[in-house]
Amino acid sequence: PELTAPVNDFAHVVDADSASALDQMIRALQAATGDVVVVATVPTIEPYGDIKEYAVKLFANQGKGIGQKGKNNGLLILLALKERRVWVEVGYDLEQWITDGFAGETSREVMTPLFRSGRYGEGLVAGAERIIGRQLPSAALRSGTLRAFRSKAA
Predict the structure, then answer these.
(1) Which one, 31, 93, 128, 136, has the greatest CB density within 10 A?
(2) Residue 142: what are its φ and ψ, rounded to 5°?
(3) Inter-residue contact 9 to 41 (CB < 8 Å)
């Protein structure tokens, strides 16, 4: 599928509050740094056998890529429901901040525990917040938007 927005919920598992919070965070990051984060949920990665392979294909976004033209400043957070897998695909220019280790830790320790209880939107918000926190100055992350979302989620 083509990725046309910051949040692409093809599996229909992200609640409206989480989708809104993700959209606001991602747009704030893009306005501040030019970096682009895209979140996608899919029912399955079939016919691909591996989520990494599917993520690379999705990251290519039908030849458009994710991120600014001529830069490798995009990042994809992919959730595959049937396979119960999440993957973070990072553009080369962001790898100095979002390493494979950091991305894997975020997937395992931040997102997956929420996914296990069916809280997909909250898990994606928590993961995106941690990842974006590596890219934006911490003061920007303490915006009223995130505080408001956290108080709603509590």
Answers:
(1) 128
(2) -90, 30
(3) yes
